[in-house]
């Protein structure tokens, strides 16, 4: 059994991890750290887990009882935690923050997008889990980049309120978000760095603009990204390109019909749909921001790192209504 520790156990991504890992056949959850909840039952925070587990939060991480640590803290906190704590080299680390996603001197984390770096993930000890918008947008663009066919691209993507994290803000509480919609961080979202890094990895010399308009949606979870770019491919050629690229990636499905968000909510699936309009290729990409865009992808990475079948514990059911 893989012994799992979670640091920052009170947030949304930690809650999703717990829901997945409690039912994972190869996992034993041995430590769930939360500075503010030490000694409290897990179900006092993640209330839907009442009756599912008797686990309690720990105020400190016990490294003697874990094989892998999931870091579920806010951006900037993971780097601080690893600097302040001497984590044994034998313990694998999966970081769900932004801290290690971009390549830099001294950064030995592998970027954990299985549809991009599956073989590297299998032998990695440290994984930087991708961002939610970044995951959805990369699934829309990777096949084109791999074929050297990606040009300047325009992306509009809408996300649910859980994408802003558990701590309430002026734009995430119910009375503001309900029956409302707004653009934020136009052309300057923090996930653009990792998106461009991956595209350059596949399409050497890629310098084209990725014009990204993020949108706050009035729903709780899920991301719908629509991207378009000029192409000389026919629609049939583009669909084949995408199906060939994703044929060995069990969680990314190239749909033959226009998808909707409820096909992916509460699952680790990414659904991609392609249409050609005159000289432009339209790509629609949908994921659950908390699962495929965070915790489910993190467990997928764990499965790969420990030599398990990559779908283990991750066949979740979508919500039809």
Automatic annotation (TrEMBL):
Protein name: N-acetyl-gamma-glutamyl-phosphate reductase
Main localisation: cytoplasm
Coiled-coil stretches noted in the UniProt entry, renumbered to this chain: none
SMART domains: Semialdhyde_dh
HAMAP family for the chain: ArgC_type1
Family in the record: Belongs to the NAGSA dehydrogenase family. Type 1 subfamily.
Pathway it works in: Amino-acid biosynthesis; L-arginine biosynthesis; N(2)-acetyl-L-ornithine from L-glutamate: step 3/4
Entry keyword NADP: yes
Ranges for domain Semialdehyde dehydrogenase NAD-binding: 3-124
Species, as recorded: Plebeiibacterium marinum
A GO term for molecular function: NADP+ binding
Catalytic residues of the enzyme: 132
CDD domains linked to this entry: AGPR_1_C, AGPR_1_N
Keywords, in A-Z order: Amino-acid biosynthesis, Arginine biosynthesis, Cytoplasm, NADP, Oxidoreductase
Subcellular location: Cytoplasm
């Amino acid at each position: 059994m893989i012994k799992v520790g979670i640091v920052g156990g009170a947030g949304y991504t930690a809650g999703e991890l717990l829901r997945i890992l409690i039912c994972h056949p190869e996992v034993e959850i041995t430590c769930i750290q939360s500075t503010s909840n030490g000694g409290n039952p897990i179900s006092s925070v993640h209330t839907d887990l009442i009756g599912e587990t008797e686990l309690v939060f720990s105020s400190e991480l016990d490294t003697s009882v874990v094989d892998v640590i999931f870091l579920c803290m806010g951006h900037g906190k993971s780097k601080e935690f690893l600097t302040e704590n001497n984590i044994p080299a034998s313990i694998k680390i999966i970081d769900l923050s932004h801290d290690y996603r971009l390549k830099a001197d001294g950064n030995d984390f592998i970027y954990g997008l299985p549809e991009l770096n599956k073989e590297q993930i299998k032998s990695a000890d440290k994984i930087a889990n991708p961002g939610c918008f970044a995951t959805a947008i990369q699934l829309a663009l990777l096949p084109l980049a791999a074929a050297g066919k990606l040009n300047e691209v325009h992306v509009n993507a809408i996300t649910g309120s859980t994408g802003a994290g558990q701590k309430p803000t002026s734009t995430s509480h119910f009375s503001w978000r309900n029956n409302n919609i707004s653009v934020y961080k136009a052309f300057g979202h923090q996930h653009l760095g990792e998106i461009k890094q991956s595209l350059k990895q596949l399409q050497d010399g890629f310098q084209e603009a990725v014009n990204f308009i993020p949108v706050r949606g009035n729903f709780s979870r899920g991301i719908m990204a629509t991207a378009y770019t000029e192409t000389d491919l026919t629609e049939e050629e583009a669909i084949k390109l995408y199906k060939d690229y994703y044929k060995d990636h069990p969680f990314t499905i190239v749909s033959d019909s226009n998808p909707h968000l409820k096909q992916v909510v509460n699952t680790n699936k990414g659904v991609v749909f392609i249409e050609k309009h005159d000289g432009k290729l339209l790509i629609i990409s949908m994921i659950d921001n908390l699962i495929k865009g965070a915790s489910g992808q993190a467990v997928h990475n764990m499965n790969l790192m420990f030599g398990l079948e990559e779908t283990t514990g991750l066949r979740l059911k979508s919500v039809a209504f």
